[in-house]
């Protein structure tokens, strides 16, 4: 196919033609929307680095869910901000923990909505690390028990999917075993399989008040330079019983999404994290980019790279555009 016989521009002439040959189309069904459940009542704290997002107490979270549910966003991902933090993160596995309370309320009000709970201790520990500390580092095997307890506790509260994000070795297997023993053999695990030690989690750590008080997460989260290792991490999670695998963050790791997509046939999620969201918002607020247009382009790139599910703070805004209630500007 050579010019002038083949002219790529022929099929780009009109929007209708372009839409007929479009290879990837975002859909509201693709999205999972994260929420920050805050202890107490009447809490709706805006998050300055994440415009449009809040820390919400359970009853206000229910209100905030109305639009995403009406728009058909199939799932939410819950994080918790507990009243008290302690060295072992006990709110994460307590019957009356903040996530447990929120899950019960949400499942009661919106039984069809898929509620995914993030299982990790960093939001619940007073030191901000994702596990218990021994000898100044996170102790892997001691942490596994607490993660497994948390997963069971979330499932008992009504969680539909358990999503471990801690990056301890062996946690998917430990959680699977504990869920099965507790009678939750039908509860799927969405594993944060290739989760990188990333600067793009900055706004999230303010939102969840979960920044580590000393050191960093590089002894358990992945080195940003590695993608062979991502395949090893994913294959371990698959062997241990993961039902859905995940790459996180998304945009700086599209190559990893693509490699995982081409190596494994499990459903694949990608997490378009807080810093990716904040960058688009900040540049748009400055008038430096067209925010809606860049948002849709970024989300499309994640799907094009091979993600089946996109966890994103943009989910509601993107849904408004996809459903024709807001227009992406076609100028320029
Ligand atoms: C918990 C967790 C984090 C994110 C999701 N789960 C933060 C971290 O690992 O420090 C980040 C999500 C985001 O930035 O949107 N471990």
Automatic annotation (TrEMBL):
Binding annotation for 5-aminolevulinate 1: 205, 217
Binding site for 5-aminolevulinate 2: 274, 313
EC number per UniProt: 4.2.1.24
Entry keywords, A to Z: Heme biosynthesis, Lyase, Magnesium, Metal-binding, Porphyrin biosynthesis, Zinc
CDD domains: ALAD_PBGS (cd00384)
GO biological process, one term: heme biosynthetic process
Domain of life the protein comes from: Bacteria
A Pfam match: ALAD
Residues the record lists as binding Zn(2+): 120, 122, 130
Reaction catalysed by this enzyme: 2 5-aminolevulinate = porphobilinogen + 2 H2O + H(+)
Classification via SMART domains: ALAD
Residues involved in Mg(2+) binding: 233
Annotated active site: 195 (schiff-base intermediate with substrate), 248 (schiff-base intermediate with substrate)
GO cellular component: cytosol
Enzyme superclass (EC): lyase
One GO MF term: zinc ion binding
Annotated family: Belongs to the ALAD family.
NCBIfam families the record matches: PRK09283.1
Assembly with partners or alone: Homooctamer.
Name of this chain's protein: Delta-aminolevulinic acid dehydratase
């Amino acid at each position: 196919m050579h010019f002038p016989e083949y002219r790529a521009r022929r099929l780009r002439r009109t929007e209708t033609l372009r839409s007929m040959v479009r290879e990837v189309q975002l859909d509201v069904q693709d999205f999972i929307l994260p929420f920050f459940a805050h202890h107490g009542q009447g809490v709706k704290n805006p998050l300055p680095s994440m415009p449009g997002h809040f820390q919400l107490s359970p009853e206000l979270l229910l209100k905030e869910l109305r639009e995403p549910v009406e728009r058909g966003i199939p799932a939410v991902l819950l994080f918790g901000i507990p009243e008290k933090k302690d060295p072992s993160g006990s709110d994460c596995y307590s019957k009356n923990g903040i996530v447990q309370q929120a899950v019960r309320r949400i499942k009661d009000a919106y039984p069809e909505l898929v509620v995914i709970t993030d299982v990790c201790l960093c939001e619940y520990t007073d030191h901000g690390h994702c596990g218990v500390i021994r000898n100044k580092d996170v102790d892997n095997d001691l942490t596994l028990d607490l993660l497994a307890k948390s997963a069971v506790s979330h499932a008992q509260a009504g969680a539909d999917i358990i999503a471990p994000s801690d990056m301890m070795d062996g946690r998917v297997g430990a959680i699977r075993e504990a869920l099965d023993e507790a009678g939750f053999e039908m509860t799927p695990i969405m594993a944060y399989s290739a989760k990188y030690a990333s600067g793009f989690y900055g706004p999230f750590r303010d939102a969840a008040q979960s920044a580590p008080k000393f050191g960093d997460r590089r002894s358990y989260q992945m080195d940003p330079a590695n993608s062979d290792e991502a395949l090893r991490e994913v294959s371990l999670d698959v062997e241990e019983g993961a039902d859905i695998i995940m790459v996180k963050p998304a945009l700086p790791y599209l190559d990893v999404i693509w490699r995982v997509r081409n190596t494994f046939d499990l459903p694949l999620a990608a997490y378009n994290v807080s810093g990716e969201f904040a960058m688009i918002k900040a540049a748009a607020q400055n008038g430096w980019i067209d925010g809606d247009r860049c948002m849709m382009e970024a989300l499309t790139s994640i799907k094009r790279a091979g993600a089946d599910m996109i966890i994103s703070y943009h989910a509601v805004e993107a849904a408004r555009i996809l459903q024709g209630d807001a227009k992406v500007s076609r100028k320029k």
